[in-house]
Amino acid sequence: MARHVSVAVPVPFLPALTYRVPDDMPRPPAGGRVAVPLGNRVVTGCVIGEAVPEGIGASPDAAIRDVASCLDREALLPPPVLELALWVAEYYACGPGETIAAALPPLALSAAARRGPRFRTERVASATPLGRDAARSDRPPLGRRQREALAALAEADGLGLPALGRRGIGAATLVRLERRGLVTLATRRVDREPPEGRASGAASPGGAPALEPTADQGRALAALRPLAAAGRFRAALLHGVTGSGKTEVYLRLARDVCAAGRRVLVLVPEIALTPAAASTFRRALGERVTVQHSGLSDGERHDQWHRIRRGEVDVVVGTRSAVFAPLASLGLIVVDEEHDASYKQDESPRYHARDVAVVRARQAGALVVLGSATPSMETYHNARSGRYACVVMGTRVHERPLAAVRVVDMRPEVAAEGPDVVLSRALRDALAETLARGEQALLLLNRRGFASALLCRQCGRTLECPNCSVSLTVHRAAGRARCHYCNHGVARPRTCGHCAGPFLETVGFGTERVETEVAERFPGASVARIDRDTVRRRGAAAALLDRFARGEVDVLIGTQMIAKGHDFPNVTLVGVISADVGLALADFRASERTFQLLTQVAGRAGRGDRPGEAVVQSFHPEHYSVGYACLQTYEPFFDAELRYRRQLRYPPAVAMVNAVVRGRSLQGAMADAGGLASLLRGRPGFDVLGPAPAPMVRLRGQHRAQLFLKGAHRRPMRDALLAALRARPDLRRRVTVDVDPLSVR
Ligand code: ADP
Ligand code: ZN
Questions:
Q1: Is residue 366 helix, strand or coil?
Q2: Which residues of 384-393 are buried (b: 16+ CB within 10 A; e: fewer)?
Q3: Under 8 Å between Cβ of 178 and 128
Q4: Which terminus of the chain is less hemmed in, N or C, by CB atoms within 10 Å?
Q5: Interatomic CA distance for residues 117 and 113, integer angstroms
Q6: What pLDDT digit, counting tens, does each position of 132-163 carry?
Q7: Ligand 2 mean position, distance from CA 475 (Å)
């Protein structure tokens, strides 16, 4: 009887396929990789289980093709992680191959994977027992070089050939010793490690952090410790104001869990936050801590993935994709800054790592702690309803006051100083005072570049992206205008492309302009900028943040990268250049995001001994998300926002699925989206809204129309969408399905 397996291949949207295992091939395990024919090529896939081919016996299974080869004799992906990846594929309505590829080390499903293992190895020499004896006596007689080599090897537990070579001991000598039975030569794996993962020196396993818990921390630990120890699934929100010391709570919980022989996964929202988080955990827990994120080289990520897989690691610190880290016996998952939008992947598979973390904790019988000063609407809703435990830390460590927040209405500033005011008088004064006291300031503007657009004063047109419906951003230092969506760039023109007029003026401003302005107004200050333009190089963000932490930079200007997590005790002033950037977006989460960003960035001030101040510039100072952020109260914001979401039927009041249809023309995209909508309408359990042109109606050269599905449950919406796409296979490649969309564009 033929044996069949179900195989996920890394092709978008493709369901698992059935293959036959030839009789002379060992059975490939679930979670192991196989090479399989697909069309006229061979691809690497992952076995997800046994398959029962439909209609077997009735019709010959000639259409079912054979597995070409088996790459893993044992599961590469541990069964629980395989199960998690399959859950993600179903929930987010994408193909299992995509989610399994996200869970595997880099390139594990590439063609290169079929050529063999990707470990780095070196040849090592070690002395045999006979060799050790020989090193101690002068028998058998040996040449000087051979004796030197043997003496070195007798003391060590195997030495790499490159290291021996550097000591003048060559391969030929070692081969001669091997022939005499005094030395063995073998191949050893060398794990590549990212710089941030290397031993930080001070680490001592179990070395107790010297901090005495605050009253808030004590209460939080008293509530969370039993949940961690219970060995059952539980989700808890740790709602702690900025500077309340959430990290210390995570550390102590992690230490308990490790001491009980279980493992810990810590998710942070930004690659730039991993080095600090990893070294904090290493100081408290020793060397069995590693990192996983997409900023590592493929080799480093691969080798650390395998260390985790082999059980050599107790704590993994990483970004979104680390939610799939192959840790066994998980006891605790921490999702720090759980509200952060970067936990959602904005390309397929469009998973939200926080939500996947909760599912993973349930599957592992673990505690998942979601930490934030500004919880997402979803998480707080779950805490309110009692689905999640909720632990509050309402005061800062040492009772430090929260920063005083002042809103500056920008309308009178513009009336007094012209349309392009970057720094209000209030913010300039506050900066001058901060610098005079020798303290540091952070300035936030969530928009890169020098100017938002280049406008022709003669014909009134702006320089637009040929591929997207946006204007090009001016980058002055680079002398270019660039699209922030598709990265299309041109040299900054001197004349208008439409009317050849010579008067081009810049409109709006970004971080580069703020940097210029601050540097001009405060020539004595050291000013630096951190955004995606300045930190393209690997490690650049961490280096800049280090310089700021060491006090080598007085004013740090940046996008939301500076609003997250960092702890700089000498920062006493935070300036928000424009609170309105996020509010301008046509997005039901605009208020939530603005509230979170303002609260978080205000929380960066006054974390040391001196009190802090935040100055928030806005053209809409009366907007409720600006108002509540300035009052630094969460609950009233949540209540107001939930009322709005209920009225307009948005998450978390309902579940939502978004589908974007791309086409060569807007009419075409709208017609196709209309076709999908008519297949969906009338199905029970949800409403269909649209089709309507998407906010970014042109993106990367394609026209876009969208549909929204809203209902109490996701399953009927997902099932109906997938059925509609099966009925219109011509659309599959042009439709993006986003379950629980975070931003709509
Ligand atoms: P949060 O993540 O809640 O904003 P952090 O965990 O970054 O806060 O802690 C804020 C600061 O307080 C850090 O500098 C931390 O070292 C310090 N801290 C935390 N707990 C204590 C404590 N129990 N005693 C003294 N300092 C503490
Ligand atoms: Zn573009």
A1: coil
A2: beeebbbbbb
A3: no
A4: N
A5: 7
A6: 888 888 777 788 888 888 888 888 888 888 88
A7: 15
Instruction: Tell me the pairing of strands 234-240 and 389-393.
Output: parallel
Distance 364 CA to ligand 1 centre (A): 29
**Per-residue pLDDT tens for 585-620?**
668 899 999 999 889 888 888 888 888 999 999 999
> Which residues lie across from 528 on neighbouring strands?
556
For residues 154, 160, 161, 167, the Cα torsion angle rounded to the nearest 10 degrees is -60
DSSP letter string over 33-85? EEEEEETTEEEEEEEEEE---TTBTTB-GGGSPBP-EE--SS-SS-HHHHHHH
- Whether cis (ω within 30° of 0) applies to the bond prior to 349 is yes
Protein residue closest via CA to atom 24 of ligand 1: 211
DSSP helix, strand, coil percent of the chain (3-state; round to 5): 35, 25, 40
**483: CA distance to ligand 2 center in Å?**
5
Question: Taking 80 as the threshold, does the pLDDT of residue 210 lie above it?
Answer: no
What pLDDT does 550 receive? 93
Nearest-CA residue for atom 16 of ligand 1: 245
Quick one: pLDDT at residue 719? 93
Q: Cα of 745 to ligand 2 centre, how many Å?
A: 13
What SS3 state is found at 694?
A: strand
Which amino acid makes up residue 269? P
- Give, as one character, the DSSP assignment of residue 480: E
The residues lining ligand 1, judged by C-beta closer than 6 Å to any ligand atom, are 211-214, 217, 240, 242-248, 397, 567, 607
Which pair of structure tokens corresponds to residue 201?
């020196």
The C-alpha atoms of residue 697 and residue 376 are separated, in whole angstroms, by 28
3-state secondary structure of 15: coil
Q: Which helix (H) or strand (E) holds 739?
A: strand 735-739
Torsion angle, alpha carbons of 362, 367, 368, 371, to 10: 160
**Within 10 Å of residue 63's Cβ, how many Cβ atoms?**
8
- Report CA 539 to chain centroid distance, whole Å: 16
The strand pairing partners of 455, in sequence order, are 462, 505
Question: What burial class does residue 581 get, using C-beta atoms within 10 Å of its C-beta: 0-12 exposed, 13-18 middle, 19+ buried?
Answer: buried
Strand extents, DSSP E, 504-620: 504-507, 527-530, 555-558, 571-576, 613-618
Please give the average per-residue pLDDT across 485-504, as a whole number. Answer: 92
How confident is the model at residue 199, as a pLDDT? Answer: 47
Residue 735 near residue 706 (C-beta atoms within 8 A): no
At 45-102, the pLDDT tens digits run 999 999 887 655 545 555 899 999 999 999 999 999 999 999 999 999 999 999 999 9
Site to substitute for ligand 1 among 372, 399, 567, 599, most atoms within 8 A of C-beta: 567
